[in-house]
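explain this.
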Amino acid sequence: MPSIVYRGVGPRIAYERRIASLTQADLARAAGVGLGTIRKIERGERGVSDAVLDAIADALDIDPARLLPEKERPDDRVHRSMPGLSTVLTTYDVPEDGPCRSLPSLAEAVASVVAWRLGAQYVRVARTVPDLLAELCRALQGAAPGEHPAVARLLVDACRAADAVAYKYGARDLSARLIDLMRWAAQRADDPVVDATTAYVRTEVFFAARAHAAGLRALELAADQAPASSAPEAIAVRGALHMRAAVIAGRAGDGDSAETHLDAARVLGDQVPEGVYRGTAFGPDSVRVHEVSVAVSLGDGHLDRALRLAREWKPPRCLPAERRSGFYIELGRAQLWAGRPDAAFESLKVARRIAPQHAREHRWVREDAATLRRLKRADAETLSNFAEWCHAGAGA
């Protein structure tokens, strides 16, 4: 993907550097960029390429999108990666020749994109994952028999990261193709936990098609087939399937099934510590987040439950940013429907602070911001700025 040079980022870099209590020399060393280059960037005398922008963001430990000028939208950077993803999906079983890193190096690269996905840093995923997928396809083709399952598992994880970007940025056909590649790779991983994880992700296809009843059946079948081991990873995978089944049952209007699956998730969540298992956050806190999601999906008579839970509990910082942001987006919708527009707007702003790329691309954020703007119940200028930031009304 060709590199883009950004202008006007110098003041933002200088501001974030000062917030981090770093000198220009400190930032130059941490980012691996020349001190003179940092000085010129901050003075506005030169632009910044994608690679340098990401290196500086890494050094500052922030999302690169926070450094972009207002006219540069993070989704522009993401959409430029889509052709590369499409090419990989076309040639996955006949990959072009090219270099392949060692299995440990590939595992490290995949771990990075998984962490970025969980942190809702989709720009970083988008810039990295097309080349990584191509390399993993080459590695799988040339792997020794003993390494085949390990490479296939890495390919599944990388596809999931790519799918998170494609799905959230509206490329639903591309998302469906990535899930097909996940399922193809999972067959080669020889791991029932990978099969269960793939079934969890596949639910996006049913959400996109609004085929909620069919999605519920698929998840229930996956839960029945999931490994019954008492190992924490197996427990967490089963629990995650029940969490997602509860949400899609709520979308289907099946309150009884939603409660049954929530109860099952709650029991399993109490058996393991909160953590990330095979790329999915699971534990007691994650189950609470899904309780709010189910209540919002069921609507009307269930909203009080979501509001009550939010009064009593807030998602801890140990949860991935994407999940915490999702909690406040769901809460904002419950508050809006309950006739509390000012509280809803505050929740949307919290979601943006936690994970700006996730909030900006979430359909509910756009819809609710557009509704709030019509109601004019919050500060007009602040609300208008927020609505423009998330392009409310544009394909909401």
The first strand starts at residue 5 and ends at 6. The radius of gyration is 22 Å. Residues 122-142 form the longest helix (21 residues). The chain has a mean pLDDT of 91.
